[in-house]
C-alpha cells in the first residue's frame, strides 16, 4: 500500500484557463493546467506529484517508443448544480486499467494512489470542468514503459500520468460506418480487450481508407470469418432488432466498455429485452431488409451514445431510420446524462462525488 497523503503539488504560474474558449470545445484539443505523475521503479510506485502540464523528455531508446508497452483509460468528470465534482465510474476504469496492465505485462496500480491522484488533480483544475451541455472534463490516465533499453522485454520502470482536457462529444452528431471485411482489429487471445496503444495504431489505416470513402468509423468483424460484429474501435456496438437490444458478447478481442455496461444495466432495469450474443452481419442486413432494424448505435466514454445513420456493407448503403424515431437510444442517452450530472438518482452507485 502506498502512502498517498503526500502528493507534492507544484502549481502553474501560467494558467491557460482565461485563453480557453469553452463555447467552442472539440474533443482532445485543449489540456488543463496540471497533470498527476508517479513512477514505478524497484517494483513499487512512488514519487506522487502534481506538476504543470508539460512535455516529457525521454531517451530515443525508451522502450515504449519501440515496442508499444503503453496503456490508457478515458473517464469523465462533470460539475453538479451545487458545485460538487462528479466522476463517472472511476473505480471501474481503474479495474480495467489493471486488466490492461496485466495483459501488457505492466505493473498494476494501487487503487488509493490512482484515486487520490485524480481527486487532487481535479480539485486543483476544477475550473476547467465545462458547464456547456454535452461537455465534460475528460481524464486521460496512461502508463508507459520507461526503461532506456531496446532489447525486447518488459520494462522494469514505468511512468503513470493523468492529464485532463475539457471536451465536447467525440463525434458531432450521427456517424456513417462501414463494415470491415478485409482488415482485422483484434483476434481472440490478443490484446483487443485492453486499452493499449497498439490496438488503435492497427485501426488507423483501415479508418483512413474508410474516411476516404466518406465513413467516419469502422464496424469491425471477427478475425476468422468476418461474419460477426465485434466493436467499433472508439465504441462498442448495439442494435435494436424488433424490440430487443442486441450487442456482441465480451471476449478477448472486444473492449469491455463502461458505457456499454451502463447502457445494458439501464435497459435491463427498465425491462427492455437485452441479448448479449454473437450478432452476424447477415442478421443485421436481413433485419434492415425486413424493416426490423430500428436502431444501431455505438457506446463509449468519449462518444457517449452515437447513433449510426448509415451502414455500408460491400458497397451498399443501409440508411437507418432518422434520429428522432430512435426512442430507446435517445431515452438511454438522456437517462445516462442525467445520472452523470447528478440530476437523476444514482441507483447503481456509479458516481464518485468530490465536494
Ligand atoms: C474513450 O472513449 O475514452 C476512448 O478511449 C476512445 C477514444 C478516444 C480512443
Write structural notes for this entry.
- This protein is α+β, with helices and mostly antiparallel strands and 355 residues long.
- The chain folds into two domains: 4-167, Aminotransferase class 4, branched-chain amino acid transferase, N-terminal domain (D-amino Acid Aminotransferase, Chain A, domain 1); 175-340, Alpha-Beta Barrel (D-amino Acid Aminotransferase, Chain A, domain 2), CATH 3.20.10.10.
- Helices cover 24% and strands 28% of the residues.
- It is built from seven helices and 17 strands.
- The chain has helices spanning 63-67, 90-103, 111-124, 197-212, 258-269, 281-289, 327-340, and strands at 8-9, 34-41, 44-52, 70-72, 75-79, 85-88, 136-145, 158-167, 175-179, 217-219, 236-241, 244-247, 273-276, 293-300, 304-313, 316-319, 351-354.
- Strands 1, 2, 3, 4, 5, 6, 7, 8 and 17 form a nine-stranded mixed sheet that branches. Strands 9, 10, 11, 12, 13, 14, 15 and 16 form an eight-stranded mixed sheet that branches.
- Strand 14 and strand 15 form a beta hairpin.
- The radius of gyration is 21 Å and the shape is globular.
- The model has no long low-confidence stretch (mean pLDDT 96).
- Bound molecules: 2-OXO-4-methylpentanoic acid.
- The site of 2-OXO-4-methylpentanoic acid has 6 residues, from loops.
Amino acid at each position: 500500500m502506498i502512502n498517498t497523503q503526500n502528493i507534492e503539488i507544484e502549481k502553474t504560474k501560467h494558467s491557460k484557463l482565461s485563453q480557453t474558449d469553452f463555447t467552442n470545445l472539440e474533443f482532445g484539443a485543449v489540456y488543463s493546467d496540471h497533470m498527476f505523475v508517479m513512477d514505478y521503479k524497484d517494483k513499487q510506485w512512488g514519487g506522487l506529484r502534481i506538476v504543470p502540464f508539460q512535455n516529457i523528455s525521454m531517451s530515443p531508446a525508451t522502450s515504449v517508443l519501440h515496442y508499444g508497452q503503453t496503456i490508457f483509460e478515458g473517464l469523465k468528470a462533470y460539475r453538479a448544480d451545487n458545485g460538487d465534482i462528479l466522476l463517472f465510474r472511476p473505480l471501474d476504469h481503474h479495474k480495467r486499467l489493471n486488466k490492461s496492465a496485466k495483459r501488457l505485462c505492466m505493473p498494476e496500480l494501487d487503487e488509493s494512489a490512482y484515486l487520490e491522484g485524480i481527486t487532487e488533480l481535479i480539485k486543483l483544475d476544477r475550473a476547467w470542468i465545462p458547464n456547456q451541455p454535452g461537455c465534460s472534463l475528460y481524464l486521460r490516465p496512461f502508463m508507459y514503459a520507461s526503461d532506456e533499453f531496446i532489447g525486447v522485454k518488459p520494462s522494469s520502470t514505468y511512468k503513470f500520468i493523468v492529464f485532463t482536457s475539457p471536451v465536447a462529444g467525440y463525434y458531432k452528431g450521427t456517424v456513417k460506418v462501414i463494415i470491415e471485411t478485409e482488415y482485422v482489429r483484434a483476434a481472440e487471445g490478443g490484446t483487443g480487450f485492453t486499452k493499449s496503444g497498439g490496438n488503435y495504431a492497427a485501426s488507423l489505416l483501415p479508418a483512413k481508407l474508410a474516411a476516404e470513402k466518406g465513413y467516419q468509423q469502422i464496424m469491425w468483424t471477427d478475425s476468422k470469418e468476418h461474419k460477426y460484429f465485434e466493436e467499433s474501435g472508439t465504441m462498442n456496438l448495439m442494435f435494436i432488432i424488433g424490440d430487443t437490444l442486441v450487442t456482441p458478447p465480451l471476449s478477448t478481442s472486444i473492449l469491455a466498455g463502461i458505457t456499454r455496461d451502463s447502457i445494458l444495466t439501464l435497459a435491463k432495469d427498465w425491462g427492455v429485452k437485452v441479448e448479449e450474443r454473437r450478432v452476424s452481419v447477415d442478421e443485421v442486413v436481413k433485419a434492415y431488409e425486413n424493416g426490423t432494424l430500428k436502431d444501431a448505435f455505438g457506446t463509449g466514454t468519449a462518444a457517449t451514445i452515437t447513433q449510426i445513420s448509415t451502414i455500408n456493407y460491400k458497397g451498399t448503403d443501409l440508411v437507418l431510420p432518422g434520429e428522432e424515431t430512435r426512442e430507446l437510444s435517445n431515452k438511454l442517452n438522456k437517462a445516462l446524462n442525467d445520472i452523470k450530472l447528478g440530476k437523476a438518482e444514482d441507483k447503481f452507485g456509479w458516481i464518485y462525488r468530490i465536494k
